[in-house]
Amino acid sequence: MNKKKSFFIIDDDPSFKKALTQALKSDGQTVYSGTLDIIDNLSAIDADRPDCIVLPETHITAFLKELGRLCDTISTKTKVVVLSKNPNKKDAKSNIVSGVEGVISKASTMENILGDLKNIMDEPVRFTFWGVHGTLTVPGLKTARYGGNTPCVSLRVPGENLFIFDAGSGIKELSNDLRRENKPPIKANILISHPHWDHIQGLPFFAPLYQEGNIIDIYGPPNGNISLRELIAGQMNGVYFPINIKKFGAKVSFFDILEEQININSIKIQTIFLNHPGRCLGYRLSHKGQSFCYITDNEIYPRSSVNYDEEYSSKLQSFICDADALITDCTYMDDEYEAKTGWGHSSLSQVIELADRAGVKNLYLFHHDIDHTDKDIDKKNSTARKILKNLGSSTRCNAPKEGDFFDL
What we know:
By secondary structure, the chain is α/β, with parallel strands linked by helices. It is built from 12 helices and 19 strands. A hairpin with a 2-residue loop joins strand 12 (261-264) and strand 13. The longest helix has 18 residues, at 374-391. The chain is globular, with a radius of gyration of 23 Å.
């Protein structure tokens, strides 16, 4: 762990408790031992002021009720982590409530348990790029540095599930990465912006969908009278793909969402309709004062355009206002945009000016044109930084490559 922490461990399995205590102490952490008596534990916690309380799921309801009595005396930074024999069970899933930072599987290896505790305690809200091009995959030497996969970005919040934004071909690289981690069953939320093929074409190749025990929730907009489930199933109906969604081994649920707010565990997610052919959503994820915006396939009309809409422009600006991170469509250089007006994608200067006006802290250029090479993206990034400098902006700009990750 980046910093040494203190842990208060409660468990009904003496051998597991001993093994976890030894592992934490070997890692240089301070460990206090609790009993199964709630009142005794509360007195000890009040005295020891641990950074983290680790307890079994069988004690969580009663413990949290009693812990509330100490809310004024224990540190507000004290985290509660639940140990579960099966974190995919409904009762374990319900333990992710206010006051609980995460659920860890006792069936995992001790190395993975320590890794999960590290992620929770170090609190990195980390997002990773797995595909940054749009419209069509573009493999080859000219895209070797930035990568040629279509959109996919993953985001992990400590103690929460995995969030995946879009399922372009880049989701296959995420799938490979999850397989290398070899962790216990996966709980993931896939947030689809819209069902154009470059944003869903990788979904059939996402291996966790076919593994029993995994729980995958897929959110996105219906189009017309066609539900999200029907849209995804249509892509895999035998005409376009040999395996249909009935072959999924995981528990997969589909949720039609529009312009609204939803809550996934402790995460607040807001959506906004974007300016793109068909129905397309942008997402804003908020967690403990931090905000992450994913706005792709969106056309920002310049003020000189007959299509310019002041009301929509203000609405979009408010949606991304003060975001810690904004990943946004930046398909065209300015001199390319005029010939492609109405196609549903934005030019560089319009994106930069919007991010500056909205006070975005970090801007990530995304969804590059299929004809843009690595050198073109380099130019796009350097031009964007010059525009921001000329504006006197505090917004920082990056053009991420596949595999690049950032912390909020």
